[in-house]
Amino acid sequence: MVRYVYDFTEGGRDMADLLGGKGSNLAEMTRLGLPVPPGFTLTTEACRAVLETGSEPAGLWEEVSAHLSALEASAGRSLGQPDDPLLLSVRSGAKFSMPGMMETILDIGLNDDSVLGLAEVSGSERFAWDSYRRLVQMFGSTVMGVDSSRFERSLVLLKDLRGVQDDVHLPASDLAELVETYKNLIRLETGDHFPQSPAEQLRRAVLAVFESWNGERARLYRRREHIADDLGTAVNVQRMVFGNLGADSGSGVAFTRDPATGHPGLYGDYLPDAQGEDVVAGIRNTVPLAELKRLDAASYDGLRTHMRTLERHYRDLCDIEFTIERGTLWMLQTRVGKRTAEAAFVLAAELADEGLITPDEALARVSGEGLARLMFPRFDASATGSALAHGVPASPGAAVGAVVFDSAQAVRRAAAGEKVVLVRQETTPDDLPGMIAAQAVLTSRGGKTSHAAVVARGMGKVCVCGAEELTVDTEALRFTASDGTVVEEGTVVSVDGSAGAVYAGSVPLVDSAVIRFLEDGRGGGGSQGVNVVDAVARALTRADTVRRLEVRANADTPEDAVQARRFGAQGIGLCRTEHMFLGDRRKLVEQMILAGTDAERDRALADLLPLQRRDFVGILEAMDGLPVTIRLLDPPLHEFLPDHTELAVRIATAQARGEEPDAHDVALLGAVNRMHEENPMLGLRGVRLGLVVPGLVAMQVRAIGEAVTERLSAGGAPQAEIMVPLVGDVRELRLVREEVQRVLAEVSRTAGVALDCPVGTMIELPRAALTAGRIAEEAEFFSFGTNDLTQTTWGFSRDDVEAEFFSAYLDKGVFSTSPFEALDREGVGRLVNIAVAEGRATRPDLKIGVCGEHGGDPDSVHFFHTAGLDYVSCSPFRVPVARLEAGRAALEETDGSDSR
Questions:
Q1: Residue spans of alpha helices (H) in 367-507
Q2: Catalytic site residue 851?
Q3: Which of 177, 241, 705, 808 has the fewest CB atoms below 10 angstroms from its CB?
Q4: Residues 264-281 pLDDT 10s
Q5: Which residues does 72 contact at the CB level (< 8 Å), separation at least 6?
Q6: What's the rounded Cα separation, in Å, for the pair 642 and 776?
């Protein structure tokens, strides 16, 4: 038979799955001998049974009655008895902390009779009626569904009528009158009466707390925090203790360390003559916890002793709720406290220094997500004001600049020393110079894997995409917010890439000491204890010591490569050559596309060769001694041609004037029409280009080979690897590899040096993953392109679907997070596992990595470690994050725990 109820004396902190976080911690404090009001917990299994069937499971209330009888016997009084009533609190308590997201009902057991008994036994008529009005108010809103604002309005009207600011100044007679007002309100709103039966109050309160698991705010919180919907909440039933019994009573919240900085000390708030809900509700001003020492020295000393006990027992920052009832201290709750990213790193380091945790435990307690927050500049939250718009937080950080609407203007203004924000409906490769010049990128379309987002993250550039509240008019050089605010070019705005928000004007920035340290070794932080820079350095050092996964970077320029190496990259896992064909070189690509003869095409390719070689020399020099994986040209060639509409308008305008259209424009329009594809991302690109456009592969491979020989002659140690994109069949790779080997052999003979440039492929199509065993016959390495693999597995166009329906999918629970943000383990992850297993079955020494955006995602890094990959590759600014998470993944494998 399933057991649904446990006394606090029967549980412990290791039972959070069953008893929830609050219930397991109440049981743990009871076992430690701390002063915890007695009670019992209804399990998460009971909650799931109620929510799944719509009714209580058999035997539940019999168990509750038995535990209630034991509680009554220990107290020497019964629930709601008229002369000296036992009163109860009913509180939620899920496995993972969800503060304020579910319901609480206090003072269960009061009614029209027992309130009089409570007044007599307590000696305070006001206290009794204050407790009763709290019960009616909580029960009415939580259990009976009356809008809580109706109760608040009644209370405010009464205080206004009496000319008082705080509830404590209302006498007992007013509170008794308020109880009647509340009961009448419930009757009018629901047609039902406030129940006078204490047993009915308890039963309905418990069911209401169970049902609050599926409340709107709880569901929203779970989506944001990626908490599973099927866990359910436990319910804790506990004897009431009262902080609202006068000046010698009160309630408070305490932290064993500063949750903002992680440093030791006494932190928290106390509110005399108040119940716990008053402290967090903000209805009265609290006093600092240190003030309790003056008000009640004995309780203060007891609290400090209990705090030390809990911190040493939990070996972590503890968040504590307590109540003092007429000089007697009661501990109502403890949990491992939430903390800022800075506090997480500092606290982990200090606890390790104190010997409470090991260096490996310290590493397990920090996260790549927290490190990312520390790396980027932040806005001063107190100065942000109202946002003009919100969008997708595509690339974190904070930046301020004047709005510009085209790439050339961004470059001009930045060259003149002005900070700018590039605003577009969406970006294209043409916008790259402007994106480089800008402090931030803002688009009204796109998602986290749109062009703007991917490129901005690679550059460590602040980016907000998909801000649909903005209407961007690039012709009029302005955008309009949904509230009608018009922002003209040159107007200063502030872009928060972490929160996905845009603000008018210049919001002050807070510098990141961590990024300064990672870039050039300069320290920072406070002077008290371990500072945050020291703590980050220690965590990364430990991660580098224990991790198995190498961490490389995605970098397309020598500058990116230098930055990546400073951040600890162990090579380049993806060098995208298409970015090298932009700017002035675009004309050479146009010439290649428009070539009417082999000779014309060869001339265009010959002109590109020295430019490509120079690019590769610079990157190989920056990464000397480390592997550099160079991907051959991937995107469709039409992306290097002007826009179809722009060309057509130019030609039509010339014809309307009676002029002869520019011959080059006519040729370009013909090429655009000829190359038009309904779905270009699944068209002529990647390996297909190399097989269809003669000389393209040979030019790129020759540039790589000659760059390697140049670096060798300069005394360098270049390690170039050649990666063929979008392979779906081994025969494609075989044909390209034969050409690669032929060209490298020619370069080797000419230079008189041996060249060793491994040839591998990207696994970015489901067919490639499913035939990886065959492909490994020709590939010396695999690199998963998880962006395209996700697209082709799901059938999503990443540039379109995030803005169109991902929000609905997240709301409906189809996704817990975007599959472009964290790897889809069930689908895409299974393909990865198949490809790894089959590839290594053919070639046991096959080196395997990942170079998609998932390579820098903390959760995905853990998966890649488990899948047996050799390295992950990500944008330079995510390299420290990947290093940290690779270390945590290794620890997780060692101890079998989940360190995420």
A1: 368-375, 407-415, 432-437, 451-459
A2: yes
A3: 808
A4: 888 888 889 888 776 655
A5: 78, 79, 86
A6: 39
**Closest Cα partner for 552 from 879, 887, 880, 886?**
879
Do residues 600 and 556 make contact, with C-beta atoms less than 8 angstroms apart?
A: no
What Å distances lie between residue 209 and 51, 94, 236, CA to CA?
11, 11, 10
For 73-114, the pLDDT digits (tens) are 999 999 989 999 999 999 999 998 876 678 889 999 999 999
C-alpha 348/C-alpha 541 separation (Å) is 14
Distance from the first to the final alpha carbon of the chain: 35
> What is the C-alpha separation between 311 and 296, in angstroms, rounded?
23
| Given the residues 67, 306, 318, 451, the one annotated as active site | 451
- Cβ within 8 Å of residue 193, ≥6 positions away: 183, 186, 187
Q: Which of 851, 854, 862, 874 is catalytic?
A: 851
**Structure tokens, 282:** 């903000």
**CA-CA-CA-CA dihedral for 179, 184, 189, 191, to nearest 10:** 120
Distance of CA 895 to the CA centre of its chain: 25
Tokens of 404: 């510009």
Q: Please determine, for residue 895, whether its predicted confidence score (pLDDT) is greater than 70.
A: no
Token pair for 141: 């809103």
DSSP 303-336: HHHHHHHHHHHHTS-EEEEEEEETTEEEEEEEEE
The CA-based diameter of the chain, rounded to the nearest angstrom, is 106
Provide the 3-class DSSP secondary structure of residue 388: coil
Tally the residues of the chain.
900
Distance CA(493)–CA(112), nearest Å, equals 59
pLDDT digits (tens, 9 = 90+) for 204-239: 999 999 999 998 778 767 876 778 889 999 999 999
Q: Backbone phi, then psi, for 629, in 5-degree steps?
A: -95, 115
State the pairing for strand pair 318-325/250-257.
antiparallel
CA separation for the pair 332, 236 (Å, rounded): 11
Give the whole-angstrom CA distance, residue 201 versus residue 208.
Answer: 10
Write out the DSSP string of 237-256: EEE---S-SSTT-EEEEEEE
DSSP character at residue 623: T
What is the Cα–Cα distance from 624 to 569, expressed in whole angstroms?
12
CA atoms within 13 A on the CB side of 514: 25
Contacts of 841 (CB under 8 A, 6+ apart): 773
What is the model's pTM? Answer: 0.81
Q: At what angle do helices 368-375 and 341-353 cross, to 10 degrees?
A: 120
d(CA 59, CA 471): 60
| Among the listed residues 64, 60, 108, the one whose alpha carbon sits nearest the alpha carbon of residue 88 | 108
Residue with tokens 């308020």: 178
In this prediction, residue 527 carries a pLDDT of 45
| Burial class of residue 359, CB neighbours in 10 A (0-12, 13-18, 19+) | middle
* Residues 312, 356 contacting (CB under 8 angstroms): yes
Nearest to 333 by CA among 42, 44, 28, 18: 28
Amino acid code (one letter) for 30: T
CA torsion, points 689, 692, 696, 697, in degrees to nearest 10?
Answer: 80
> Could you give phi then psi for residue 272, rounded to 5 degrees?
-65, 150
Residue 695: alpha-carbon gap to chain centroid: 45
Strand, coil or helix: what is 54? coil
Residue type present at position 691: L
Q: Using CA atoms, how far apart are residues 582 and 592, in angstroms rounded to an integer? A: 14
Token code pair at residue 642: 């002007």
Is 451 part of the annotated catalytic residue set? yes
Mean pLDDT of 557-575: 94
Q: Which of 320, 264, 317 is nearest to 292 (CA)?
A: 320
The neighbour count for residue 21, using CB atoms within 10 Å, is 22
Question: What is the three-class DSSP state of 769?
Answer: helix
